[in-house]
């Protein structure tokens, strides 16, 4: 291991053991790099190009002149070398008789660009300072700066929010190489708060993760409504997967602990993506805490990460739709075609205009215990190539493309018709027994008032479009009298502007 003695790492909690583990997992040398800060010149550092899949450094430029490259990943004198590579140092020195050319930067430039030896890069989320000719006063100044930064971080918690979503078209074909349109709504959300602490603590939610009850009857009532699987497992699984991801991707995390807690007002067990919202908000907070950037974890990869937390760690049956729309936020068109998924590992995700949307409404069961087992055996039938299911998923995708055109053209009557067709198709594939009496009752009630209606998720709720405002008020009353919770949807727009109701 080679580290420049005059270099100061921006993070005093740097975990050198993680660097060694990553080095030993790779068949080559290791070079630490970081992303240049704004104003930092590339001509002052060795600049690297790193393959995002293999993490191998494909090109090294030693202090390039301004304008030579747009790359912003900078290598510093922090390397790990294998014993078998050490003889190359002698060869390099022989090739460079001039003392000014005998630098580690030139060595790596030669060994990577010309000798083609495998050298891998590991990213440090924070930067480096004081490289070169500096004095004691410079070190004192920067240490004071980092100390002040650390105190500021200790005092300021990180709070991140992710929103519930409604599937407007195409669901549940997202798990079957289909297409969907979904939207985040500001009516309901999950919120995660992270604060630095001496030990790592995951705080249980008093309602969703209860360990103390007033009586046996209280335990019965809470367990019946809330179930047994709270949000604490989601926090733990996300943290575990996050560390695993960063280790595999060559991102060196700092040795900092934190306390993590969550809150949510998303109704449980009614198919509004409450679980993935907690995972998404947790991931946001971890990324902020450890300075993980968009380039480290791009949005398509982030959606895959959230899905993997739920499917790989917690064995939850799910598709990508909810995770994609909660990462991108707003109104999103999603294409999960097999060719796209095979070629790039994710689909095409296109945010749509939200400036003028129709008056969507949402209703859900106050007691979702009879909401049905929505996914049933459809997945196995699809994997078996059963023609009815395969064609149905293609039809869901076709409906989504038509709905996209209707939304872009503000053709709300056509959109309402397509929503009804979406539910009819789902009903034919999943059958009424599978959908459950609660869902069917809500659909029937909505149709009495001439409203379009479909399931926004896995069951327990319905989303609709009623273009008659008078009947919308009457329908709300009927849903409430039937024991359902009813609300007019308020779309969540990440741009900060509120989508206007075209009926106003």
From TrEMBL:
GHMP kinase C-terminal domain ranges (all copies): 404-481
Coiled coil: none
Keyword entries, A-Z: ATP-binding, Nucleotide-binding
Gene Ontology MF terms: ATP binding; glucuronokinase activity
Domain of life: Eukaryota
SUPFAM superfamilies, A to Z: GHMP Kinase, C-terminal domain (SSF55060), Ribosomal protein S5 domain 2-like (SSF54211)
Domain (GHMP kinase N-terminal): residue spans on this chain: 249-330
InterPro entries membership: GHMP_kinase_C_dom, GHMP_kinase_C_sf, GHMP_kinase_N_dom, Glucuronokinase-like, Nucleotide-diphossugar_trans, Ribosomal_Su5_D2-typ_SF, Ribsml_uS5_D2-typ_fold_subgr
Listed name of the protein: Glucuronokinase with putative uridyl pyrophosphorylase isoform X2
